[in-house]
Specification:
Elements: H1 2-15, H2 23-33, H3 41-44, H4 56-73, H5 80-88, H6 91-97, H7 100-116, H8 120-137, H9 140-154, H10 160-177, H11 180-197, H12 200-217, H13 223-239, H14 242-260, H15 265-280, H16 284-301, H17 306-321, H18 325-343, H19 351-363, H20 367-380, H21 388-404, H22 408-418, H23 428-437
């Protein structure tokens, strides 16, 4: 009965948010309904712990603090750091109550605000505390979700042992929970983990699992489902399966159009992603039309986002392939400006654009100009958040630039270091350019 009552209470709270005059709030409520564990769990999944019978005055304080946390989280007029500060200001009252369900909810909220502020380390620490408190409260739902969030945040920074521990704990908790939404979230999280490792076949398998789960449980197009399809398209693209990539991204565009219309930044992000498939097909006319349409859309809907900066780097790449070096330089400069406006200078977000900028100068045979961009890209690529594929690509072209600039010993030392890493279809172009520059190392760079 406790399980059924809790499930209905959460459902009723979400239904109350549905408002015909506020489509955005209604869409968010529809998304969040998927997060409520199904009633069937009360018969076969793990049950929530029976809450202690709180005194009336304690119950009132608990409900009041819960509402305050929820209100602060939804204060979208405040910056993430400001929301974090307001949540932390509740610490004395929350610590005085010392009630695990409230502790878990509080740490969960702080984790999200820190994540919004791009403080990955701080957010991961808060989600770890939320998981511990959720476990103490007997709330498997929050416990597993917090582990998944922590896994997302530390996938490129934590030790392999810690990653394996988080993954196994989340899988065990999800199995107990028997909630398809959590299963989908965990499949997506693990898929991203394997994608970052370069294990593309396993990553694709898990993204396809997440896609199937979201397709079954969604009552309307869900943001997370669209993200899964985008990632699936990226993995297929890197694997060289362009047909599968295009199918996944066509579906992502369709769902995002239905979910957000053309007024949503996410819709234009999916259009931009689809443009990269056209680029891989070397259908340059179609690729440029799709990418420029997406750039115009993002200028209107999310001018301060890193997605716009990354898209302009792809347009830079397209123009470089077409030998329009002046246009390519302008797009790469715009890309760097957009990224620095959003996250500040010296960010690992710059690596892709710096590499593209250097590649333009290489194509124009300006080796000195290329070195400046590529040396900076390699330096920033040491950051744990940069994918190994991007790090290897930046190093490859730096070696080629050093060779062109007649800095032979440095070029050959870097080339010998990078050659064994150039594996897999996602590095095919880089490997081809590398072998042409260093033919004697071709055997070490064999696919």
């Amino acid at each position: 009965l406790v399980c059924v009552d809790e499930t209905w209470a959460r459902t009723a709270m979400l239904l109350a948010r549905i408002d015909a005059a506020d489509p955005a709030a209604t869409r968010e409520a529809a998304d969040d309904l998927g997060e409520v564990p199904p009633f069937e769990r009360c018969a076969r999944g793990s049950l929530p712990a029976v809450p202690e019978d709180l005194p009336a005055d304690t119950r009132v304080r608990y409900e009041d603090l819960s509402k305050q946390i929820q209100t602060i989280e939804r204060e979208t007029t405040l910056k993430p750091r400001e929301r974090t500060a307001k949540l932390r200001a509740l610490a004395p009252a929350i610590e005085a109550l010392h009630y695990p369900p409230l502790d878990a909810r509080w740490h969960w909220g702080i984790g999200h605000t820190l994540n919004d502020a791009t403080d990955s380390a701080g957010a991961a620490a808060e989600f770890d505390l939320a998981a511990q408190a959720g476990l103490a409260a007997g709330d498997d739902n929050l416990y597993v979700r917090a582990l998944i969030m922590e896994l997302n945040l530390v996938s490129t920074t934590a030790s392999p042992e810690r990653i394996a521990q988080l993954e196994s704990q989340a899988q065990a908790g999800a199995k107990r929970l028997a909630n398809p939404q959590v299963d989908a979230e965990l499949a997506r999280s693990r898929a991203v983990l394997y994608m970052d490792r370069g294990e593309l076949a396993k990553s694709r398998e898990l993204f396809e699992q997440a896609d199937a789960l979201y397709s079954k449980l969604a009552i309307a197009p869900m943001t997370m489902h669209i993200a899964v399809l985008q990632n699936l398209g990226a993995v297929c693209l890197e694997s060289g399966d362009l047909d599968a990539a295009e199918r996944a991204l066509d579906r992502a565009v369709d769902l995002s159009r239905r979910r957000f219309t053309e007024q949503g930044a996410f819709y234009w992000e999916t259009r931009a992603a689809r443009g990269t498939v056209y680029l891989a097909r070397r259908d340059f006319t179609r690729a440029e039309a799709e990418m420029r349409a997406a750039a115009d859309g993002l200028e209107r809907t999310a001018p301060d986002g890193t997605q716009l900066g990354r898209l302009r780097a792809y347009i830079c790449m397209l123009l470089r392939v077409r030998k329009d070096y002046g246009g390519a330089r302008a797009e790469c400069a715009a890309s760097l400006a957009a990224i620095r406006t959003t996250v500040g200078p010296d960010s690992p977000h710059e690596v892709w654009t710096l590499y593209q900028s250097g590649h333009v100068e290489l194509a124009a045979e300006d080796y000195a100009g290329a070195l400046g961009f590529l040396e900076r890209a390699v330096a920033l690529a040491k950051h744990d958040s940069v994918r190994p594929i991007e790090r290897a690509t930046a190093q490859t072209y730096l070696a080629i630039a050093l060779l062109g600039a007649k800095r032979i010993p440095q070029a050959r030392a870097l080339a010998a270091k990078i050659a064994p890493v150039l594996r897999g279809p996602e590095l095919e172009e880089s490997r081809g350019d590398f072998v042409r520059a260093f033919p004697d190392l071709a055997a070490q760079a064999t696919p």
